[in-house]
Every structure is written in structure tokens, then in C-alpha cells.
Design a protein that fits this description.
Blueprint lengths: L4 H25 L24 H30 L5 H25 L9 H28 L11 H30 L5 H10 L2 H26 L5 H26 L4 H33 L5
Helix pairs in contact: 1-2, 1-4, 1-9, 2-3, 3-4, 4-5, 4-9, 5-7, 5-9, 6-7, 7-8, 8-9
Length: 307
Amino acid sequence: MTFDRRARFAWVVLAFNMAVILFGAVVRATGSGAGCGGNWPDCNGGALPLAGTSEEAIEFSHRATSGVALLLVAVLVIWVFRTTSSGHPARFLAGLSGFFIVNEALVGAMLVLFGWTGEDASNGRAVAIALHLVNTLFLLATLVLTARVLSGQPALRRPWPASLRRPLIIGAVGFAIVGVAGAITALGDTLFPAESLLEGIRSDFTGTFLVRLRWIHPIVAVGVTGYLLWWAQGTEPGTGLGDRLGTALTGLLLVQVAFGALNVALLAPVWLQILHLLVADAAWLAFVLFGAEAIAVEQAAIDPAPA
């Protein structure tokens, strides 16, 4: 890979957005989503936090960092469009990242304005969280693919090779399903914490739908992880980068399963929820990059000099 200033900046933007996503999990896990009341974009009726509570400070800080993330993506989009020619693949990918980060802000505003924060356990909040999670996956994918292209890696051409199209779609959908179930499960753990493992197991079958997902999520997660491990082991791009990405994906998936088991055993402490989310996002990025490398290698073998 080559790393000029644009490429380095793109990777920094990706890392900053990862940090903001983890911060969002802190907001949810600490029950600080209603820290600024029902106001958006202002906080409790003012431009700056006035109440002086920890919940207000956490929520306001998350909004501030989210605003910085949006500005960084906007700078990346403008920089890419000003320094590349028409039809350059980075333009399309950067433009998509701009679209998805605006969606992130809109979904966040919707959560606040509809009162789907704090102790709210409504179906509307669960649906909004699911949409938020899927949009986040798209945002991270477009950002990492933008950084990849700006780093000198070959662009992907449509259509994708038939041998990779189906497993990549299945893997991406699997990631989304596991992520949505995990996000809703984390919300249930926050709103209805169990005081013991036995109580948690009992409530998995008798509690609200948010709690009942606690036993569905790990089953789905293990199944999707098994599929991804099988696919990664059977897919060999044949390049040093591809091999490293495959190893990273395999390792992250196994660590993710281990963290999931620890979450159950330790009743989902906040610090472990954050680590769980960090590894999940890292595994998603490894999956996207590994798939992109596999596609690029196969396309180069079929047509090494495209017009």
C-alpha cells in the first residue's frame, strides 16, 4: 500500500468514527441518552450543557464528537472530489460515506426527539437501534474501502466474480443480523440487568422481547461465525495482504465468540460490552477488506489489464 496525505487522512477518519461508535455504546450502557433531555441539536434548551450532571456531560460529549466525525467525513469527501478525476472509484465510495454519516446523525436525532432514550423500552427504540446498527456497518465499510482505494489498492469492478458474490452477501447479511440482535440484547442488558447468571437465564424465557433475545443472539452469532470461518479458510487470495487479512478475520471472530461467552458469564459489564463491540467492528472491517482483496485478485487473474 501507498500512504499519501489523503490516504492517511482517510484512515484517521475511519479510526475516529470507530471511537465515536464505541462512545455511543458508553452512552447507551450508562443510560445517558436522555442527558440532554428531549432537545436536539441543543442540550436541555441551550447550546452548552447547563445541568451539570454526568449523564448530560456524557451525552453532550458524544454529540460533540459525532459532529466532529461528520465534519471529518465532509472534509474527506471534498478532498477526494477536488483531487480525483471524474469516474474515480474513491469518489463513489467517499460520497456514500457522506450519505451514511448524515443518516447516522438523523437516526441519532430521531432517538432523542421521539424519546427513545434512557429507560424507554419501546418497539420503536428497538427498530431505530436496528437501523442505526445497519447504517453504521455501511458507514464503516464505505470508509474503509475509500481508504483502501486511496492507499493504492486496485478498485473493484462490477460485476463481482460469481464465486465470491454469494458468500460475501451471505456473510454481510449474517454480520448485520448478529449485530442487530447484539445491539438489542445490549439494550435489554442495560434496561433489565440480571443480578445473577441463574436469574438471567430464567428471564431469557420469561422477560420482555428485549431480554428474550439474549439466548437468540449467541445461537445466531455462533452459526454466522462458523460460516465465516469456513468461508475464510476456503478462500485464499494468494497474496501476503490477503493471507494477513484472512488470519486477522479468523482471529477476531474467535475472540468475539470468547468475549460473547464472557459477557454472559459476567452479566455484561460495561467495559466488556465496549470491548465486545470493538472486536465486532474490527471483524467487520477485516471481512470487508478480505473480501475486497479476494475480489481484486480474482478480477486481476481474469482481466489483468481492464480498459
